[in-house]
Specification:
heterodimer, A: alpha/beta, 15 helices, 11 strands, globular, B: nine-stranded mixed sheet, three-stranded antiparallel sheet, 16 strands, 40% helix, binds zinc ion
């Protein structure tokens, strides 16, 4: 038998149900793995070892006494991105300004996981306040890509993706504002899903850009993604933007035939400057889908070229407002100052990192009265066009297939001096957030440097089922998801 | 030069919802600092607002009562600024698309009826409070008020004098209280206003530069602050100066307005649509349900009182100023009171008693039935109006005491005017000699009636009592009059 930490949710549940493994064994296996590789990966900002072992023992006792009807996640160790509030456990957003913050409440997503008996392994590293594409903007430390510790794991959910890829947990939650789940999942060779905006409650997710943020699973395969989606999805009265729509059983579509399904291949997503090996892997994947019976259709999303600019105007505007509450008055860091204004300025100067400050300034500028129409309002208008593009294409196809990222994982420090270069790594994922539609990234190959390449499936609003079905069919016909990094 | 005054008011009314606008915390006044807070209203990371449906209903109710159009689609915006009492660094308010637009109210000022336009009514959350008293060089923040639902009612610049401004405020207050959406308590800050004021040479079309006076919290101060500001602006203009667009504060102790900040320091609030709340869509059926449940409003009630009860406009305005007052009046009339007499008793003596104890009409211990009892005694000439005051005082006092006792779960006594007059001996003349003299006089003047009484017409006793009371201007003890009359009438040959 493989080490428990290398298995999936489904595999572990099977072993547990057959009483071939105990919960403390699983948790111990995961922490042994962490002890072995974490100093090379650095995926976590907080480990909750004692609490996890205690919970594991309790779960095992309950199983043995027959008191526990096995729930979907009983005994499954998961990692949570450190921007989701966990009651009584530090939630830092990898920022100095929240370094001491311990929320007295629980996010809806994690409380739904808790309802199914999951075990929290730890909180994962991220770009500060989820702003970044490499996890180099963490205010705490840099996370490494398990496939090559010289390289970035992607971001902002880089800690979660790296932890899953390195078998430091069974699966994880991330958040995706412009690709922050799918891009690191692609760069770390795991499965990352951004649900439809409104599918998963944002209550307790520390906001970056409220109209774009969405929580989603990062897993070792598509089945686990569907399992976690079943649990975290659904209307939440605490989040009025969460949609009161029924949640299907996402695992029910696994293994269903994809013959005749139309997949749109947008010409705008195969651009100059994209990595040749990435493009080849994706084109090969499309052929593979075709061989499984899917029907590729050339489609056009004509406003794609405006997506990055539109995204950054809107995301920075919302961020500048969302981050105003970190002022040193109520919680977190407070720096001294001779008066109120100076206290505000010192606190924010010391508490926020460079990228966060850059975005706050740009967002403040875009919203200021003289520039609102030129930037914010204009960006909203373009956003509507981008949404309409998707609407038009989805009249003809069941899903859209694209690369997840233009390149494989780049080297640490390679793009930090050029924010604009960095922003382009989300070029294929951003439109999806602007449109609010769901998308999933799965491994579809490797470069000659043995770096994973991601394939993105984009679906219609609230039609995660189609992309899960396609992704699963593709995954089952390939071996990419079985490869593990050698750490 | 002669100037025309242009005034517009922004009235902030705290809504009477049980809970805050975006969370479940209570809104009650006067609790210990930060005891009525939760992660949502203190803006902790990651939490989200959820709109209180009751607040929305109250705003719609107010819009309908002021002839506004209710927007089928409205939304919230963020108003961004930094201040310690603003926990999120922004206030959630309505901006581009408010819930109500284009209404009006009617006022009467200086005998003239005028219509004041309402530009918009929007919902927003209140901020907390900074407390600067206390130990050391620190300020404290109390967030109990943070998230308390407010309505901002913005008028058109239709107001032409401080008096009109006060009448407008009073009318709004009455409407809000009739609707039950705001208690109108200006001392506690439930109702307050900002005034925009500018002057222009009579006949000129363009508006002059305006000054804004912030946070005025009484009718008297509205009038005084505007009076002061008009004189100040006239002085500046007449001496060739220019009015600065600025925010001014009313200093009630010194009776002046002073500059708070100039335009150069003016805030850029950076409004944008609140992404944490979905836009509000209101369906027509709900609006109609709210409309059909509206109470009779002051203007309609006023017309009805004048025409139906034949009251003077002066008395009517008094009675309709508060709905419970108008209700007490109508119920007392329904039990048999004469409208004019009821009006006099309530607006005169009852309000004097309430005012003396600083009590509102809602706290009045007396019931319509008790008031009718007094009025019956007056009408039957048992007591005079002068005596009625004493009876009312006694009835008010003992009833209030009795309510106090009833709280101790002792059986409540029914205190009637008759009982007070008869049993408490509340007569100003109890001199047997004086009463005997009057009784003798009346019997002497009415020999025929005396004969009829003696031959068994018992009910004539009422006639004799009335005559004696009339003679003694209602000041005699009715029990003594009664006893003496019976004695004298039966002892006569
Ligand atoms: Zn609250």
């Amino acid at each position: 038998m493989h080490e428990a930490c290398t298995l999936t949710i489904t595999e572990l549940k099977d072993l547990l149900d057959r009483k071939e493994i105990s919960v403390p064994d699983i948790v111990a296996s995961v922490y042994r793995r962490i002890d072995t590789v974490e100093d090379r990966v650095r995926a976590f900002v907080t480990l909750t070892r004692e609490k996890a072992m205690e919970t594991a023992q309790k779960a095992q006792d309950a199983i043995q006494s027959g008191a526990l009807n096995s729930k979907q996640l009983t005994g499954i160790p998961l990692a949570i991105k450190d921007n989701m509030c966990t009651k009584g456990i530090p939630t830092t957003c990898a920022s100095k300004i929240l370094h001491t913050f311990v929320p007295p409440y629980e996010s809806t997503a994690t409380s739904r996981l808790a309802g199914e008996g999951y075990i929290l392994i730890g909180k994962t590293n991220m770009d500060e306040f989820a702003m970044g594409s490499s996890t180099e903007n963490s205010g705490l430390h840099v996370t490494k890509n398990p496939w090559d510790p010289e390289r970035i794991p992607g971001g902002s959910s880089g800690g979660s993706a790296a932890a899953v890829a390195a078998d430091e947990c069974i699966a994880a939650l991330g958040s995706d504002t412009g690709g922050s789940i799918r891009q690191p999942a692609a760069l770390c060779g795991v499965v990352g899903m951004k649900p439809t905006y409104g599918r998963v409650s944002r209550y307790g997710l520390v906001a970056f850009a409220s109209s774009l943020d969405q929580i989603g699973p990062i897993t070792k395969n598509v089945r686990d993604s569907a399992v976690l989606m079943n649990i975290i999805s659904g209307h939440d009265p605490c989040d009025s933007t969460s949609a009161p729509v029924p949640v299907p059983d996402f695992t029910a579509v696994l293994g269903k035939d994809i013959r005749g399904m139309k997949i749109g291949i947008p010409e705008e997503y195969f651009i100059d400057g994209m990595d040749r090996e990435v493009e080849e892997a994706v084109r090969e994947a499309v052929k593979q889908l075709e061989s499984l019976g899917a029907v590729p259709v050339k489609v056009s999303l004509p406003h794609t070229g405006y997506a990055v600019a539109t995204y950054y105007v809107l995301a920075m505007s919302e961020a500048s407002s969302n981050l105003a509450r970190y002022d040193g008055v109520k919680y977190g860091l407070r720096s001294e100052g001779k008066d109120l204004m100076e206290m505000y300025m010192n606190t924010r100067a010391e508490g926020f990192g460079a990228e966060v400050k850059r975005r706050i300034m740009l967002g403040t500028y875009a919203l200021s009265s003289g520039y609102y129409d030129a930037y914010y309002r204009k960006a909203q208008q373009v956003r509507t066009r981008i949404k309409d593009d998707f609407g038009a294409v989805f009249r003809d196809v069941d899903a859209i297939v694209t690369p997840t990222t233009p390149t494989a994982a780049f080297r640490i420090g390679e793009k930090t001096s050029d924010p604009l270069q960095m922003y382009l790594s989300d070029i294929f994922t951003i439109s999806v957030n602007l449109a609010g539609v769901p998308a999933i990234s799965i491994p579809c190959g490797f470069t000659s440097d043995n770096l994973p390449v991601g394939l993105q499936f984009i679906g219609k609003h609230f039609d995660e089922e189609s992309i899960i079905k396609l992704a699963f069919a593709y995954e089952q016909s390939t071996v990419w998801h079985r490869r593990k990094p050698s750490l | 030069m002669k100037y025309e005054t242009i005034i517009g008011l922004e009235v902030h009314a705290q809504m009477l919802t049980a809970t805050k606008i975006f969370c479940g915390c209570p809104t009650a006044f006067g609790a210990g600092p930060n005891t009525q807070t939760c992660p949502v209203c203190i803006g902790m990371p990651g939490v989200l607002p959820v709109l209180n449906r009751k607040a929305l209903e109250f705003a719609i109710r107010t819009g309908l009562a002021t002839h506004c159009r209710i927007s089928p689609y409205s939304r919230f915006a963020r108003k961004n600024y930094f201040y310690p009492d603003l926990p999120k660094g922004y206030q959630i308010s309505q901006y581009e698309l408010p819930i109500c637009e284009d209404g009006h109210v009617k006022i009467i000022a200086d005998g003239k009826s005028r219509r004041i336009g309402i530009t918009r009514i929007h919902m927003e959350e209140d901020a907390g409070k900074n407390i600067h008293e206390g130990a050391g060089n620190y300020s404290f923040v109390d967030l109990n008020r943070a998230g308390v639902p407010l309505m901002e009612i913005v008028s058109e610049p239709d107001i032409r004098s401080p008096l009109e401004a006060v009448e407008y405020m009073k009318k709004l207050r009455a409407i809000l209280r009739y609707l039950g959406v705001c208690d109108g308590n200006m001392e506690q800050g439930s109702l307050r206003c900002d005034a925009n004021i500018s002057l222009r040479p009579a006949g000129q079309k363009e508006l002059g530069v305006k000054a804004e006076i912030k946070n005025i919290n009484s009718f008297r101060f509205v009038e005084k602050a505007l009076d002061y500001e008009i004189k100040r602006q006239i002085k500046v203009l007449d001496s060739g100066g220019r009015i600065l667009q600025e925010t001014r504060l009313w200093d009630s102790a010194r009776g002046i307005t002073e500059s708070m900040r100039g335009k150069e320091e003016a805030h850029d609030y950076r409004y944008f649509p609140e992404p944490d709340l979905v836009p509000i869509t209101v369906n027509q059926q709900w609006i109609e349900e709210i409309r059909s449940a509206l109470p009779e409003l002051p203007d309609v009630k006023r017309a009805r009182f004048v025409s139906f009860y034949g009251l003077s406009e002066y008395d009517t305005d008094f009675l309709i100023s508060e709905k419970p007052l108008a209700d007490l009046f109508e119920e007392t009339v329904k039990l048999g009171g004469q409208p004019k007499a009821v009006s006099n008793l309530i607006t005169g003596d009852l309000l004097r008693l309430l005012n003396a104890e600083n009590k509102s009409i809602e706290e009045c211990p007396l019931k319509p039935k008790q008031l009718v009892g007094i009025l019956n005694l007056i009408e039957n000439k048992i007591i005079s109006w002068t005596m009625a005051k004493t009876v009312l005082d006694e009835m008010y006092r003992t009833t209030a005491e009795n309510i106090g006792i009833a709280k101790l779960e002792l059986p409540a006594l029914e205190i009637t005017a008759d009982a007070i007059v008869k049993e408490k001996g509340l007569v100003q003349i109890s001199d047997t000699g004086e009463i005997e003299k009057a009784v003798d006089d009346v019997i002497a003047k009415n020999p025929k009636e005396a004969e009829r009484f003696k031959s068994g017409e018992e009910k004539l006793i009422g006639f004799f009592v009335g005559q004696v009371m009339k003679l003694m201007k209602g000041k005699a003890n009715p029990q003594m009059v009664n006893d003496l009359l019976r004695k004298k009438l039966s002892s006569q040959p």
